[in-house]
Design goal:
Shape: elongated
Protein name: Pre-rRNA-processing protein
Strand content: under 5%
Number of helices: 13
Keywords: Nucleus, Ribosome biogenesis, rRNA processing
Main location: nucleus
Helix content: 40-55%
Radius of gyration: 33 Å
Largest sheet: 2 strands, antiparallel
Distance between the termini: 138 Å
Order of helices and strands: HHHHHHHHHHHHHEE
Pfam family, one: Ipi1_N
Strand order of the largest sheet: 1-2
Mean pLDDT: 79
Low-confidence stretches: 38-43, 217-225, 232-241, 294-304
InterPro entries: ARM-like, ARM-type_fold, Ipi1_N
């Protein structure tokens, strides 16, 4: 008689041997590997980088500026289009993006900065009077770039307009005592106040020195003495709102207009002491050495006269 086969026969387990797998068990002994997909922006896709510079995500904008900086030498013909996209990021809400833009401008050839200096200055000036304190705090680092790489063109085109914007930036009143507005400006900057204001004063010092430095002598031995009368002027007299100051004497004259509020503001900051006080003292000392400063009892009649030369 045949042995009856049970439908559900229980297997006996033996010591030292693993439990047998079920017939419907799934093997999990396979390994895993990661797949790295390279960036879709292969080659030098400038248009993609320019689009990403307007991205809503701050790290993406920062990376786009870095990518543009890396390939800009291949796109010298498009420098105008590039700057029209990158310069508005001077006013970006993210600090790291603004730092990236400052580095980008610092790596540009001096000729590119000179050719588009008005476009760059428009955005720098906007940052100096921006409603956001952090943007104002970073504003003068962009001036440092222009002062370093194209100082002559910068003071020729932007000396007067830039000097005027230091007063609202530092909270100095153009009409009278600047103490109250300076305090308000300091409070608005919060933790950034000390470092930012010191940077502002140092760049103001550099601006004044560059603007009032004597022009280098130009030797025109190949031209007749009256040749200038028949040449096209370098200044456009019909340019509306032009504040171009071609020489140091014109810039000294512009500085004279702001003398009283400038001295008031610097003397108040000097009393604060520390690094910012020393920076202010440097400007006051320079002005006293560079100009014959006449004081009267009525500060409204105080004037600056060019220092007499031997």
């Amino acid at each position: 008689m045949a042995k009856k086969v049970k439908d559900f026969e229980k297997q006996k387990l033996k010591v030292g041997k693993s439990k047998p797998l079920k017939s419907n068990a799934t093997s999990t002994s396979f390994g895993t590997k990661s797949l790295v997909i390279q960036s879709q922006n292969k080659g030098h896709d400038l248009s993609s980088f320019l689009a990403l510079a307007r991205h809503y995500h701050a790290p993406t904008r920062r990376q786009a500026v870095g990518n543009i900086s890396g390939i800009i030498h291949l796109h010298e013909q498009e420098i105008g289009e590039i700057l029209e996209t990158v310069c508005p990021l001077i006013l970006d809400e993210d600090h790291q993006v603004r730092i990236a833009v400052a580095g980008f401008l610092g790596n540009l050839p001096a000729a590119s900065l000179q050719s588009h200096i008005k476009l760059i200055l428009v955005h720098i000036h906007a940052s100096m009077t921006h409603i956001t304190p952090a943007i104002r705090a970073d504003s003068t680092q962009f001036l440092q770039v222009l002062m370093k790489h194209c100082p002559e063109q910068f003071v020729r085109v932007g000396f007067t307009s830039t000097l005027a914007l230091y007063f609202p930036l530092l909270g100095w009143n153009l009409q009278g005592n600047s103490q109250s507005s300076s305090v308000s400006s300091t409070l608005a900057l919060g933790k950034l106040a000390s470092k930012a204001r010191t940077l502002h004063i140092n760049t103001l010092n550099k601006l004044i020195q560059l603007g009032t430095a004597s022009d280098e002598a130009q030797v025109d031995i190949l031209f007749h003495l009256d040749s200038e009368k028949f040449m096209i002027p370098t200044i456009n007299p019909f340019e509306e709102g032009s504040q171009i100051t071609e020489d140091s004497e014109a810039r000294k004259e512009a500085l004279r207009i702001y003398y009283k509020p400038l001295i008031n503001g610097l003397e108040i900051v000097q009393k604060e002491g520390g690094e910012i006080g020393r920076a202010s003292s440097k400007i006051l000392t320079y002005l006293q050495a560079e100009f014959d400063i006449k004081h009267t009892n009525n500060m409204n009649s105080a004037v600056i006269r060019p220092k007499e030369t031997a």
